[in-house]
Amino acid sequence: MPREYPARSRGHVEIDMDACILCGLCSRKCPSGAITVNRAAGTWSIDRMGCVQCADCTTGCPKHCLQMQPGYTPPGPKKLVDVYQKPQPEQKEEAAPQDGKIVNDMEKCILCGLCARKCPQEAITVDRKESRTWAIDRSACVQCGACMDACLKFHALSFAPDDGAAGTETYTKPV
Question: Which of 30, 63, 65, 67 could form a disulfide bond with 16, CB atoms 3.0-4.6 angstroms apart?
Answer without folding.
Answer: 65
